[in-house]
Write a structure and sequence with these properties.
about 40% helix, 7-stranded parallel β-sheet, alpha/beta, 2 domains, Alpha/beta knot
């Protein structure tokens, strides 16, 4: 059995205020977590980060940076995106529902995305997420500071159960490669119009990201798609 802090990875995307990075890191340590990623920050002032992460200077070595969301996704088996509002094509669940899901999951590396302070996560940044998560608030005063949102999420997730990991699962990056392989096949053979293929792309992509594929299943499906591509008539719909 492993402690949940080992598999939970919190990520701040396009953070504007370096102080929020420090405050969020301190909040995670308060709740027993230490995996914080900073992805494409707009500002990254180490002095301000250390100031707002008061008392945690030694632990700041755990702070990780990523040049792109894809770099983060390559290491996560499941990703949830925090969003105050529902997004088209993504299931929208509450923080308590998230806790229930992660308690049932055998994934060893789960990521939680938090967007920019001003406009949150854009559609492109939701690309690797399987679901969006909201934090219930009073509707007249629903806006949360970024570090506050991280603290509330961490507090709730600190109640998660110890887990036993199952077989290695495909990462979000792995599933992206598999999706690309399948999409190339169906776009040229199932959809006769490019616009039809585009409309179905997001729907199919989201289905892939929600699919908890094992590494073994991933390899098998890659072989299947490769075989189909070799046998399929070139540029002719099925």
């Amino acid at each position: 059995m492993k402690h949940p802090s080992e598999r939970f990875n919190f990520a701040l995307v396009r953070t504007f205020d370096s102080g929020n990075i420090g405050s969020a890191f301190r909040a995670l340590l308060n709740m027993g977590f230490h995996h914080l990623w900073v992805i494409e920050p707009i500002h990254f002032n180490t002095d301000l980060i250390e100031k707002m992460a008061a008392g945690t200077k030694k632990e700041l070595k755990h702070l990780k940076t990523a040049g792109s969301l894809h770099d983060f996704a390559k290491q996560m088996e499941m990703i949830y995106a925090f969003s105050a509002r529902p997004r088209k094509d993504y299931p929208h669940i509450s923080l308590n529902e998230l806790l229930s899901e992660v308690n049932q999951s055998t994934a060893r590396h789960i990521g939680f995305l938090f967007g920019n302070e001003t406009n949150g996560l854009n559609n492109d940044e939701l690309y690797f997420a399987s679901k969006t998560v909201f934090i219930p608030t009073e509707h007249k005063h629903s806006s949360l500071n970024l570090a506050q949102a991280v603290l509330l999420a961490a507090y709730t997730l600190s109640g998660s159960e110890a887990f036993t990991s199952g077989p290695p699962l495909a990462t979000s990056g792995d599933k992206e490669l598999l999706f690309s392989s399948l999409y190339q096949l169906i776009a040229s053979h199932l959809f006769q119009k490019a616009i039809t293929a585009k409309k179905n792309k997001i729907l199919l992509h989201n289905a892939f990201q929600k699919w908890p594929l094992s590494k073994k299943e991933l390899t098998y499906l890659h072989h299947v798609f490769q075989a189909l591509r070799k046998k399929a008539p070139v540029d002719k719909p099925f």
